[in-house]
Design brief:
The chain is of the alpha/beta class. Helices cover about 20% and strands about 30% of the residues. The chain is built from six helices and 19 strands. The chain is elongated.
Length: about 350
Amino acid sequence: MHQESDIRILFFADSHLGLDYPIRPRIERRRRGQDFFDNFQTVLDHAEQRRMDLVIHGGDLFFRSRVPARIVDLVYQQLLDFAKHGIPIYIVPGNHERSRLPPSLLLNHPGISVFDRPKTFLLKKAEKTLSLSGFPFVRKNIRQDFKSIVSETGWDAVPADARLLCMHQAVEGAEVGPVNYRFRYGSEVIRFSDLPADCLAVLSGHIHRKQVLTAETEYGKTTLIYPGSIERTSFAEKDERKGFFEIVVGPRPDSDAWHMKRLEFIELPSRPMVDVLLDPKIKPWDLGTHIRSQLAGLDDDSIVRFKCIKTVGHPFDGILTSAFLREVMPASMNFQLSTDFRTAKRTER
């Protein structure tokens, strides 16, 4: 049961809009770019339908810093249409944007706020105040400078019933990739013990795997939330669930102290990613038939990566082209070649 003063937050990150979304494609074929735009819109629609109190995007809104104007307009128009529903959205610029969102008059809507520098926003509901502090991605020396950057936000200078810290950084303990690489050290990794315990939670983008890390520090309990990316950006993420978090914060029933009352991960649709192995013993003239048989049992929406067994590069050199694969594969599938092919090719020279 929610209290009137409870604040409901939708948190997502790493949408990488514009990835594989050419403005003037030379060849008509299915692109992955629309998957990212579709999931982005699904998240915004969910926030509107559920009447969330606010939305936070944790960084890497775009897939790179220099984005075609058409992509910028498409993304900002989605944000503008959403902001007209009266739900404020707060955005952290990420590393792919080089810590700065592309400028546009569309960002001037009062319902769209950007952490373009260390700062703090306040959101009021039912005479209660939520403080949102944050800063754009810091590329160098974040481990050393983190505390001073957080201080620059002025997070503790304004009275609030609850506080959140929003960022786009790697923190020690976070895990990524198929081998579960864990961030521990380095100038680009924040110490977990340096996270401010006075915040109900630290909300961060940058790590594409969904995870929630909680630990007791000398200052108290700290919770770090990574929602992960909204789509699988590479085969390193092929087995990961993608989505976003609904977070409810509010006062405890027996005191004025606030806490996190609910944290729920909402899964988004992700197309299956599948590896297909090719053996150099396959005769070149049988390659098309072999690939069709390998794909026959797969989901029509699959994203396929062709991998080599040993040295495939030479036997299929000049055959395994994009034009050839488009001819033998369903138009609904996407495909790519493993880096093994390039390695094999170099070895054969």
